[in-house]
Amino acid sequence: MHLDSYCCIMCVSNEEEDTQHLFFNCTFVDACWTYLNIQWDTSLDFQTMLLRARERFGSVIFREVMIHAMWSIWTLRNSIIFYYGSLSFDWWHRSFTDGLKALTLRVKPNVKDAILHYMSSLL
Question: At the top level of its lineage, which domain of life is listed (predicted)?
Fold first, then answer.
């Protein structure tokens, strides 16, 4: 797809967007991960980076939180590029929490409890 620019539209770094930048190095995304209490050591290879972040997170719901956070980042980015949306932490947060709430409808009770406890700790 041809775009006018391939620079990240979610931060001011004017850096060309790639997956590493979009999901781990962008300043906006860094604020999202900080809010979620997930810390990425981007100096490590990808698999080790994931394992370390999961260890530090310390909960069985790391994968669910990470996937929903990334999905919300992706959909926010696409809404800005394709639908002239605006960069909004509130939009990202609402998308993230709505996704986790929906997930609680189809997971095991112990995972549901962990998700609900985690979400209440974010408030």
Answer: Eukaryota
pTM, to two decimals: 0.92
Listed residue (17, 18, 9, 121) closest to 65, CA to CA: 121
Write down the pLDDT at residue 86: 95
Q: Residue 25 class from Cβ within 10 Å (0-12 exposed, 13-18 middle, 19+ buried)?
A: middle
Percentage of the chain modeled with pLDDT above 90: 86
Q: Phi and psi of 38, rounded to 5°?
A: -115, 125
Give a three-class secondary structure readout of the chain.
Answer: CCCCCCECCCCCCCCECCHHHHHHHCHHHHHHHHHHCCCCCCCCCHHHHHHHHHHHHCCCCHHHHHHHHHHHHHHHHHHHHHHCCCCCHHHHHHHHHHHHHHHCCCCCHHHHHHHHHHHHHHC
Cα–Cα distance between 97 and 35 in angstroms, integer? Answer: 12
